[in-house]
Amino acid sequence: MPTISQELIDHLLEGDFDVRAEVGKSSLIEPIAAAFNVMSARVNALLRSHRDLEQGVAHELRTPLAQLKFDLELARTSSVESEREERFADMERDVVDLEELVSELLVLANLREAPPYQPKDVRAAELVDEVIRRAQDEMRAAGRSIAIEAPRNLPDSLSCDSKYLSRALVNVLRNAVRYAKSKVAVTIERAGAKTIISVDDDGPGVPPVERERLFEPFTRLDSSRGRDGGGVGLGLAIVKSVAEWHGGEARISDSPLGGARVSISW
Fold it and tell me: What are the CA-CA distances from residue 255 to residues 1, 112, 224 (Å)?
């Protein structure tokens, strides 16, 4: 393994960010080597993340674009007005899917570029009410009827970036409503200096072996929490980025309602 030397620098110039500097703990340059290794690991992770995202985007765009082309051709060649109208309706749904994909991609790309974090105290009740209202509006538009239970014993305020935290919570609630049988519940609790917001549903839940990977872009389950249920596979990736951006984490666990619990803590 190269040490801090011209050899190591040459590896970096060639794009090899897997190299690490190795020096003894008693060495005077050990702090520099440690900082160098952290930097190299972060650059490597960032590059891998961008590659994965680019590949995912190309794959996800291909499906709705191919469907649009197919529907357009059928609409153009059909002589039956009802068939043309049906194809136009399908094309409209494909365009909506593309708009959602682009919107979510822009949010995720912005978060991964580490925008300036601007936390401030916001009224917890106002933030939660707005998030629930948006989820209810989307639910009505989709013809769903799921009860959303608001949190009790709310703190007076939350220290957060309300723009991005609201976006993350809307994504979590959107998923919960999509897969719930009849009920979704939101809770907020304090654990020392930490704030934990959890969203529970009474749906099919998420197997433990699948929970971590669901926070990666374009990841869906093949079961009832799959693509047929809607979504572009970026919602939980955004949730994870927002949580980490706040200095916290997002996790999936079993819900006391019988389904899944998604928690954001910071």
Answer: 46, 29, 17
